[in-house]
């Protein structure tokens, strides 16, 4: 099986490369692995060695031809490439994410690929109540005010149109919860706090008092578990949407446990959003208020379909994943061989 991965040097892309190497090494699958990235990794370092690499920026006007060349002869394409920053350049994000997905789908059609698997997100869903589980039939209309959610919902519409026009192509989409690992510590810090604030995060954060809105209820999952779900979709040539999340659901009480908090202070959601939005506009930190809208509105996903059809079960809990990324953020962790996952640089002495 020849598998091409866009965004192969990113957080989930690197985890998927590891998972594919495992499948190839244990003899259960004969795999040719192809990576597509804007910035190539160190090809001599695992998991990037033993991979055929192609350079392409999926959102660039010239991308479609380069992608079709990379996709030639592929049995499956996994589209993971997605740009989260810079939040202040909305048009650049739309070009990379929405136009980039359109380029990938056009190249899939041109190359005659029979299976395409796309990274969607819990953020693609329309707002849903937090007091019940939501399955894959819930509308993927996005959450107004969140550029990430709006673009993911637009991506879903592109996938729907592609599926209608190309019924011979097996199409799957994964909708993971927030995805964490220690190796993403520096990347997550840069994306959501900014380089300066990320340096202030200790390895084991402790907050005696935690002010948090009661609406801040969400799910998380480890990158390795997401990668395993992708591999199971590929191995089974599965189609359709799959929710991917670990237990338990993370609420203010769970956050208090993670941060060793003695007292939780209810904080009105509009206050938190205003503080985040103003500080973002002043460029004091990297997260705009739309991320708060998405966190408050996104559903609590039911993962029964992935468990029953893929045989998927996460190995790490959501709490373990959150603790791991916080420790990785504090330590400045990452993967030196991958540009997107580069560890936080430290000043030299002397």
Describe this structure in words.
The protein has a domain at 2-180 and 220-245 and 299-314: Rossmann fold, CATH 3.40.50. It has a seven-stranded parallel β-sheet with strand order 3-2-1-4-5-7-11, sandwiched between helices. A two-stranded parallel ribbon has the order 6-13. It is α/β, with parallel strands linked by helices. 40% of the residues lie in helices and 15% in strands. Strand 4, helix 3 (90-111) and strand 5 (115-119) form a beta-alpha-beta unit. The model has no long low-confidence stretch (mean pLDDT 94).
What's the arrangement of secondary structure elements?
Blueprint: E1 2-6, H1 11-25, E2 32-37, E3 52-55, H2 63-71, E4 76-79, H3 90-111, E5 115-119, E6 133-134, H4 147-165, E7 170-176, E8 178-180, H5 185-192, H6 195-198, E9 209-212, E10 220-222, H7 223-236, E11 240-244, H8 252-258, E12 263-266, H9 269-281, H10 290-297, E13 300-301, H11 304-310, H12 318-331
Parallel strand pairs: 1-2, 1-4, 2-3, 4-5, 5-7, 6-13, 7-11, 8-10, 9-12
Helix pairs in contact: 1-7, 2-3, 3-4, 5-12, 9-10
Briefly summarize what is shown.
By secondary structure, the chain is an alpha/beta fold.
Which short descriptors sum up this protein?
single chain; about 350 residues; alpha/beta; Rossmann fold; 7-stranded parallel β-sheet; two-stranded parallel ribbon; about 15% strand
């Amino acid at each position: 099986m020849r598998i091409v991965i866009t965004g192969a040097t990113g957080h989930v892309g690197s985890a998927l490369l590891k998972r594919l190497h495992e499948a190839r090494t244990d003899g259960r699958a004969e795999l040719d692995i192809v990576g597509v990235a804007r910035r190539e990794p160190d090809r001599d370092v695992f998991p990037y060695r033993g991979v055929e690499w192609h350079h392409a920026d999926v959102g660039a006007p010239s991308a479609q031809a380069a992608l079709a060349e990379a996709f030639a002869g592929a049995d499956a394409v996994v589209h993971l490439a997605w740009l989260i920053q810079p939040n202040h350049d909305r048009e650049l994000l739309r070009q990379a994410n929405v136009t980039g997905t359109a380029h990938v789908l056009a190249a899939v059609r041109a190359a005659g690929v029979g299976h395409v698997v796309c990274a969607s997100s819990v953020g693609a869903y329309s707002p849903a109540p937090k007091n019940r589980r939501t399955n894959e039939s819930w509308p993927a209309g996005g959450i107004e005010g969140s550029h990430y959610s709006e673009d993911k919902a637009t991506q879903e519409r592109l996938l729907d149109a592609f599926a209608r026009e190309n019924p011979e192509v097996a199409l799957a989409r994964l909708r993971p919860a927030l995805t964490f690992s220690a190796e993403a510590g520096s990347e997550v810090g840069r994306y959501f706090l900014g380089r300066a604030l990320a340096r202030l995060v200790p390895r084991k954060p402790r907050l005696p008092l935690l002010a948090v809105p009661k609406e801040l209820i969400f799910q998380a999952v480890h990158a390795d578990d997401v990668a395993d779900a992708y591999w199971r979709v590929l191995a089974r040539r599965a189609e359709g949407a799959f929710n991917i999340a670990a237990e338990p659901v993370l609420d203010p009480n769970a956050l208090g446990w993670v941060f060793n908090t003695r007292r939780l202070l209810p904080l009105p959601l509009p206050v938190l959003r205003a503080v985040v939005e103003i500080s973002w506009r002043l460029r004091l930190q990297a997260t705009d208020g739309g991320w708060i809208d998405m966190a408050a509105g996104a559903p609590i996903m039911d993962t029964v379909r992935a468990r029953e059809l893929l045989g998927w079960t996460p190995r790490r809990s959501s709490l373990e994943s959150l603790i791991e990324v916080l420790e990785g953020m504090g330590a400045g962790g990452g993967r030196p061989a991958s540009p997107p996952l580069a560890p936080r640089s430290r000043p030299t002495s002397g």
